[in-house]
Amino acid sequence: MRLSELGEFGLIARLAARFGQGLPPGMVGIGDDCAVIPWDEGTSLLVTTDLLIEGTHFRLGDLSPRDLGHKALAVNLSDIAAMGGVPESAFLGLGLPESTPVEWVEELIDGLGELAAATGTRVLGGDTTRSTAGVVLDLTVLGRAPTAHLKLRAGGRPGDVVAVTTSLGDSAAGLRLLLDQASARPPDEAAAATDELALIRRHVRPHPQLAEGRWLASRPEVHALLDLSDGLDSDLRQILQASSLGATIELDRLPCSAELSRCAARRGWDALPLAATGGEDYGLLLTLAPAAATETARAFAADLGHPLHLIGQLQEAPGLVYRQAGRPVELTDRGFAHF
Ligand code: ADP
Ligand code: MG
Question: What's the CA-to-centroid distance between 182 and ligand 2, angstroms?
């Protein structure tokens, strides 16, 4: 069998089967946003690592080195946020072609350094090597979290409300604009250009929701928490699999930004499939006790200054069901289709 048939998740399942057994109490290995290592009384050490490879994760022409440095750290901090943690330190693995201008590397380090400073993350080490396969960035971030606050993907309970902390699909729309750039005419009105720049910015400069993660993790009514890296559909399935549950998502409640709605209308795109499947928004996805959901959403908006969107519910029956106007719809390669 080739890797393309096994898939990323299939390979991770094999790794988990090999290395996930017999861990001491309190330790979490392969399968959540961060590894968890019990540290001292009440505190756990968090470890996460994410690899960004030129050609797979980014094209050099689409973002500045400053954006790339920011993004490489941001995607790791997002996993710390998903555990309700505080970042502490980062280790920077750099693979660079010999022809790379030094100024380019300095800008990359500036982008990473600015986000590190803003979040209290100290760069304590790394590794540097010549690369014949383009630019490679391999970040590892350590953080810590109150052990009592850890919310794992397996924490979902039947009846839980499903919620997200950001609008969905902006980053995927930004990526689509970047990929379409060669063929598509840029919009001529200034307002349209502003919308599209905002979407591209969501893609190249993700904002890790560290304060939101800590706030949510501290609430006992929040049961499962992870960050939206692969897209709602894929990331919610992680909770469903880990919690052995199903879910129903109401498409009418998926939060789409005004920028995405206007851009989709102008370009003739369907915004809903982008919102449901588009990756790299780096908001948080959570499930919480239904009795507390409305009050939690109110308090979240009051404390964090932006909404918590309640978009669906977990259920015993397996599978992920989408509904629109109260009727089930099916997610196909070409968008949502009514049965
Ligand atoms: P995330 O998107 O939250 O970073 P991933 O989908 O990348 O999570 O990974 C899921 C889980 O699988 C994580 O716990 C991660 O540490 C683990 N994992 C991924 N690749 C490997 C690997 N090559 N070896 C061991 N564990 C891995
Ligand atoms: Mg994650």
Answer: 31
**Which range is least confidently modeled, 7-21, 66-80, 137-151?**
7-21
Q: What angle do CA 227, 240, 322 make, to 5 degrees?
A: 90
Q: How many angstroms is it from 208 CA to the middle of ligand 1?
A: 18
116: nearest Cα among 210, 179, 36: 210
Q: Are 317 and 244 in contact (CB under 8 A)?
A: no
- Closest ligand 1 atom, residue 29 Cα: 14
Please tell me whether residue 252 adopts helix, strand or coil conformation. helix
Rg of the chain, C-alpha, whole Å: 20
Residue 27's pLDDT band, with cuts at 50, 70 and 90, is very high
> Ligand 2: distance of its center to the CA of 329 in Å?
27
156 in Cβ contact with 245 (< 8 Å): yes
Residues with CB under 5 A from ligand 2 (ion): 33, 79, 227, 229
**How far is residue 227 from each of residues 21, 37, 330, measured CA to CA in Å?**
25, 20, 24
Q: Residues 29, 38: contact at Cβ < 8 Å? A: no
**CB distance 282 to 228 below 8 Å:** yes
Dist CA 291 CA 312 (whole Å): 14
Mean of all residue pLDDT scores within the chain? 95
